[in-house]
Amino acid sequence: MEQAAGAAHNFQSNTFLKPSLSYRYPLLTAACLSLGSAALAQPIIGGLDREMDAILAGRVLLTELNCVACHNSSLQAKGAPALRETSTRIQQSYLEEFLTDPHQAKPGTTMPNLLGSLEKEEQVEAAKSLSDYILSLQTEGTPTLPAPKPSAESTARGKELYHQVGCVACHNPEGSSLENSIPLHRLGEKFIHSALVAFLENPHKARPSARMPDFQLELSEATDLASYLLRDAKVRESVQADLSRVAAGKEWFEKLHCAQCHDPEQAPLPLAKALTELDGNRDCSATDYQLTETQTSWIQAALQSMDDEWDPQREIDFQMTQLNCYACHQRDGKGGPGDGRDSYFTTTNLNLGEQARIPPSLSHIGAKLIPYTLKETLTNGSKQRPYMNTRMPAYGSAPTKDLLELFLAHDKLPVAEFTRNEVNKDARLAGQTLVGDQHFSCVACHTFNGHAMTTLNAIDMTVMANRLTENWFHLFLRNPQQFHGTTIMPNFWPDGKSIRPEMLDGDRGKQIDAIWQYLEPGQQARMPSGVRPEPIFLDADQGEAVMLRRQYTGIGKRGIGVGYPSELNIAFDAAQCRLGSLWQGPFGEMSAVWRGQGSGFVKERSKTVYRFPVGPALALLDDMEAAWPVVEEAVKAPGFQFKGYTLDAVQRPTFRYLFDGMEIKDFFEDQSDGSTFVRSLTFDKKGSEKLFFRVAAGEKVTAGADEKTYLLDGQLQMKLSLPGQIRTVDSQQELIVPLAGAESFTITYEFLTK
Amino acid sequence: MKTVFTLLTLATALPAAEPLADTWGTAEREENYYRITRITVPEPHFIEPGCFATTPDGKIAIGSRRGDIFIVDGLSLPIPDPTFHKFAAGFDELLGLDWRDGSFYATHAAELTRVTDTDNDGRADRYDTVSDVWGFANYHEYALGSKFDDEGNIWVALGLSKSYYSDALFRGWAFKISADGEATPIASGLRSPLGVGDNGHGVMIYTESQGPWNGSCSLKVLKPSGFMGHPISYNWYEFAPEMGPVPVEPNSPSRMEIERERVKELVPYAVVFPFMRMGRSTSGFVVDETDGKFGPFGGQIFIGDHTISVVMRATMEEVNGVWQGACYPFREGLSTGILNSHFTPAGQLLTGGTTRGWPVRGSRTNILERLDWTGITPFEIKEVTIEPDGFLLEFTKPVDPETASQSENYTMDTFTHIYQSGYGSPEVDQTEPKVLSAKVSDDGLNVRLKVEGVVQGHVHHIKVTDVLSTEKDELLHVDAYYTVNEIPAK
């Protein structure tokens, strides 16, 4: 017990408890009076690791050690872990050992040793009985599962998480022994892997006080973190508990008044005399808590001043110490990552400066965030800063309710005076202009709806008006350095004068107001100049074609685009059963159909796209002079029915459709030269006398070497298996092919230039 | 000392820029009964679930907005260990999926498509157009597909063009379509459906969104030859003679209750979801047929909301030949904009959705969330049904007779919406009915409220405060919203 040497200056006296209390609660008293065994580590409270205001520190101890669970007071006891589902979490052997002597089993624990006054054998027996009883408590939780052996990869990922997301703000980094680190002691004997995963996923269930906050880990993250934390543990199965002493355990449980801390709803106060009636110099038992002299002196200081009224800021300080907000945050110059832990606060974007890695200051926080957002942040955590590796965990609503109210009621900032614009489109438009890359270029650092202009990803502009108070927004923009001495955020109104005087009379207030109005619709705000979303490319992959039914240029909503492995592409029109377009190169960019509402067009990734005429490709004509039927774009072609497609081994479609009582199969086979498509149409019966096919139309169609060879735009060669001809009807030039009697028809499209 | 601070008034007024309303504030307590397990989809896959189906071998198929069908195994394990397999691709906004006779039936914007793996290599190779009876040419023309009904039809609900017009054939209509493609028009007057299916009583319903001619989101019954309220789609009656003559034009502004009398085909909202309090864009739904694996709400409707990332419950009953019912808060705190839900064979509720295009509270992408019943029964208002002289409240656990028999523990207020061509409606015509008595049944599971002032055509907000269970539980949620179209005769 080297680490504890000299740490526990037990405050011992057997005069602290008055006889009446001893009489009423003989066993509790006995426990309090017992001498500690060998000197062990004192209870560790994360927030108490600094030069402390002794009274405040004492009050923190009174709540965190649950003194006030028995001693009536206006203070709120932290409470202790919920025992209802202990059996799903904790191994029986560990629990017995812990109950026998908590300080021995887990140096640093805040659990008092309640069996210290008993003979050793009786201690063990009592602990076993208590353990049986606790494990027997009704559980409806997920049963523990056999423990898988964590993989080395999982352990490595867990190690990274542990040192990155904020665990080491309170716990020791690996290989270090920092003052007041909450001990992670013998976890392998306490938990099996699945139980630790469940705990990490939802720590508040077992520990509703939220002193261990909920990092809202993904299941995979909790799994990895558990793998790391149990890296040295022996792999073992969950052992079915042997619960033979439940009844005796229940007696112990009641005798020791365990419910005062572990099930406070069932524990009526007061059990012991009120805090205000205690004499700080006399009535303090320290033995069973292993308090240090300093800790005892803090409690004494607190007890002597229980009647003091605190100003709200000191109450905020107190509650932030209880929850150890100071481990990560500063407020009014106090707190923030301490030495030895600072280097674990990291960022993915060093270019954003210190603000990118150190959690934000909580000075004036209640005047900065709107109540809804502040409540959400405290209750459910926050993920507004994608670049910050440390996460703001969830503390739940009950543990933060008072703190929220205090922040909102007492954090004040001066009121920014400014001239408001009329609330209208013009103001929003001005705001949109101001934030764009041609003006203040806020978009140079801040993302907009997740889209970034550069690699910087400062807090997203579309969340600002839903997070911040309007007043703070004005004050901050006027002088960012006043809030963050090292911020890289510029001041656009040096000496109160706008760097863009031509907008809104150059008036600072009006300009900031215009930006605010523009940002108010949140994600629905229009994208400012300069922001371009990352493209989403879809391409043939691993020798297989890709396909997407969406809106395509010249076709409309019923397009079916296909990207072939040889970097040739088509878009087919399922409404009119025709080839809509052909292009060479990569297939498409999907932003306009896979982002936002997805109402745009697939963008073909080629400068040259050959488009074929709108309207059906097959028609029944009385003669060569008859006009081709006109059907507008995106309207179903009368007489046609699209029937679907089959895919070959490399996902290339054969389209099927009906026309004039026959089924047509239409297959495009890309050739490995990367410039040739062989398109085969086959019919399930011979084409009628009047059946014609329109291959292409427009002035750009020209005849080639023979009646089976034609060119489109001089660059796309079309070789036909049957003779065609260019005709002009109603001043419309068309390449058509009679299909009377045909059972198949082939067109070979060849791109003559890359 | 603490009292010093609790006396201080709080700055509770929220700035105007708060479009997603407040939460119910019950997420932490809900977690005790229905636990959320988040399942991240591994890259390179990207899934925005719009629909789900279970395959015969118990795997879960997911249809995605981007157009893929994934088959996922391992979702139901206590600690999920899913494997994602892309079965099919290329669809346009998949919003309906079912399995029948060796094929998927996928409803997407363009078609109802039969999707088959004919060579059993684990990937679809045959895509047959079952029906494309509707036009698809404009923005916002989504198609929502049901599971097969008992007669072997998939019901398809068709959104309006650009969400306001009916420019392409049958936009704003619903059809039933057999597996071989026979399409029967069912109803006109839809606006922006986001879910369609059986209500648990063999009656097909759909989810409608707040907007023109819809004061708030609702569930509506797809009554054959019915009119769902938005007259812009009257232009297609000549293409559907079996639907009968074009209905009378509803007046605007008016009330649903008044126009029901004038427009005989008009089907009133069965369950109204009060705006913001109960979602802002209610979406896909599913009926609990898990035989109790999901807790005490068997047979009830579980419906998501895209905007506020919650799942709610709804119940329906038929009164005087008209369907009506109630909605109840169920589970908040989901991470994405919910589009649809599905029960796994193990009785867990799988949810998924999207964050793009419209505002959402849960902003995470590429994620599935599974709700597991923990085995602990929450104390909830299980169902509200109407009585000739009030309402019957059924609870999930026996109530404490003392608190439950005090009529002042039940408060009611009612309202309706303006039925109008403009967008949405405020809540209007508020009344406050009086709860005259509360009578607890012998088994403690039911409380009969005798109420003075039930208003036909109004949503009745029932708030239950201070009623405890016999085990002294407080109610997990205290609100229910019952839409009264009809009042049963004595």
Automatic annotation (TrEMBL), chain A:
Keyword terms of this UniProt record: Electron transport, Heme, Iron, Metal-binding, Transport
Domain Cytochrome c, residue spans: 53-138, 153-233, 244-411
A Pfam family reported for this protein in Swiss-Prot or TrEMBL: Cytochrom_C
SUPFAM superfamilies, sorted: Cytochrome c, Multiheme cytochromes
Range of residues in the leader sequence: none
Example GO molecular function: heme binding
Electron transport is among the record's keywords: yes
Gene3D superfamilies noted in UniProt: Cytochrome c-like domain (1.10.760.10)
Name of the protein: Cytochrome c domain-containing protein
UniProtKB/TrEMBL annotation, chain B:
Top-level taxon: Bacteria
SUPFAM superfamilies documented for this protein: Calcium-dependent phosphotriesterase
Protein name per Swiss-Prot or TrEMBL: Large, multifunctional secreted protein
